[in-house]
Amino acid sequence: MALCSIQVNVNGTNYQSVVEPRLSLADFLRHELGLTGTHVGCEHGVCGICNVLVDGRSVRACLLLAVQVDGQSVETVEGLAEGEKLHPIQQAFMDEQGLQCGFCTPGFIMSLKELLDCNPSPSEDEIKDVLGGSICRCTGYAGILRAVQSAVAKMGGGQPSSAD
Amino acid sequence: MKPAPFEYAAPPTLDEALAILSENDPDEVKILAGGQSLMPLLNMRLARPELLLDLTRIDELGGVRALDSAVSIGALATKRDVEDSSLVRDRNPLFMESTVMIGHPQIRNRGTVGGSMVQADPAAEYPAVAVALGAELVARGPGGERVIEADDFFITYLTTSLEPGEILTEVRVPDLPAGTGWSIQEVARRHGDFAIVGAVAMLRLESGVCVDPRIVIFGASDRARRHPEAEALLAGERPSAALFESAGQAVAQSLEDPTDDVHASADYRRDLARVLCARTLSEAMERAEGSGA
């Protein structure tokens, strides 16, 4: 089986690697680059725990092959904090108890980063649509929703508009 | 849970993809578009192709274009591309509504329009809307280009009339005719799940009576289907709750061999089809009245 050479920018750093075609992006990040902040849950696209951003869009890293991101940019949860200073979404998850065990948290946070990058004042329905794409078995989601609303306020988003 | 090994090709043009397809045993090749259905099958090793043919580097298969009275959606356009398309929003609000019912944002960012059509899941929204609107599916193969009516494209569970050497290139979605009221509704366990049963309704009102009524039920049997018996009950009649209820009953009676599985019994699906038919007709009528036609 032919190996493939790929070049990927992850959190601002360029990496060159030779991979098996069947290697998922999630396993590439974790096993090849040692970026274990991206967690792996169901490995078939249902749980949303491995969500990362590819060229700014949230995707399931278990449903994408590493060869498919050749030439593209990937953002993972490791790329969010600036030194010791957490990203406002991360800080809000801590402040509002948006996590308990924390296993699902990176997937939620990366999807929410895409949402807030595209739409700084999302309505509650728009937030819930994104939250629906990941599964959390600890929090019951109320703390997560509170965290997003708190992050929106802290990041300078206006009053949430009603979806129409 | 990792895929079995496979060779990988990601050609930059459709011609090269067709050549690769013709040079290999079609049973040993899987075509990858957005991967939101195929990748789980690979991860679970339910599919074990020798070659994975990735179309996502073929720019000519993307994009949304205006035709005279239709919108042409490239097979590789993602659901996110459709969501962001003002052209689809203006020309076909039914197609737009069905798009945002699919999965979750993270799925729609990768999942493609062509992929959903070719996957032909009986509970998927796009095949149902394609059948309701009379969409055309365009395929290229060794013999050239072929245009297939949606109703002839979907055969049964996960099966289309595409030939082994063909690749779907484009979906032509006719514009909603002026004055058409429409509705798509579904019942699912969770938001974003595949429907247990769903319904699409379209109709126009002329001189107070229903014109060109269309009813499609999906998720209830082997594929999305129109229901001509129920449509015939509506054509030329004044709309009323009682009329829509009788159409729902006709749909329930004409439903052949409803799916019976862990998600819902056949009887429950039959009853959902009745209820959703009446509800979508009612909403379609409200929209038709609101359009001022």
Secondary-structure arrangement, i.e. CATH architecture of the largest domain in chain A? Roll
CATH class of the largest domain in chain B, named Alpha Beta
> With helices defined by DSSP (H or I, 4 residues minimum), what is the helix count of chain B?
12
CATH architect. name of the largest domain in chain B: 2-Layer Sandwich
Structural class of chain B: alpha+beta
Instruction: Give the percentage of residues in beta strands of chain A.
Output: 15-25%
Low-pLDDT runs of chain B: none
Low-confidence stretches of chain A: none
CA-CA gap between termini of chain A: 51 Å
**What structural class do the secondary elements of chain A suggest?**
alpha+beta
* Rg over C-alpha atoms of chain A, rounded to the nearest angstrom: 16 Å
Order of helices and strands of chain A: EEHEEEHHHH
CATH superfamily of the largest domain in chain A: Beta-grasp domain
Helix residue percentage of chain A: 25-40%
CATH topology of the largest domain in chain A: Ubiquitin-like (UB roll)
Quaternary structure annotation: heterodimer
Question: How would the blueprint of this fold be written?
Answer:
The complex is a heterodimer of chains A (164) and B (293).
Chain A: E1 4-10, E2 13-19, H1 25-32, E3 51-54, E4 57-60, E5 73-75, H2 88-95, H3 105-118, H4 124-131, H5 142-154
Parallel strand pairs in A: 1-5
Antiparallel strand pairs in A: 1-2, 3-4, 3-5
Chain B: E1 7-9, H1 14-23, E2 29-32, H2 38-43, E3 51-54, E4 64-66, E5 70-74, H3 79-83, H4 86-91, H5 93-100, H6 105-108, H7 113-119, H8 125-133, E6 136-141, E7 144-149, H9 150-153, E8 154-156, E9 159-160, E10 167-174, E11 181-187, E12 197-206, E13 209-218, E14 225-226, H10 228-234, H11 241-254, H12 266-290
Parallel strand pairs in B: 1-3, 2-3
Antiparallel strand pairs in B: 4-5, 5-10, 6-7, 6-10, 8-9, 11-12, 12-13, 13-14
Helix pairs in contact in B: 5-8, 10-11, 11-12
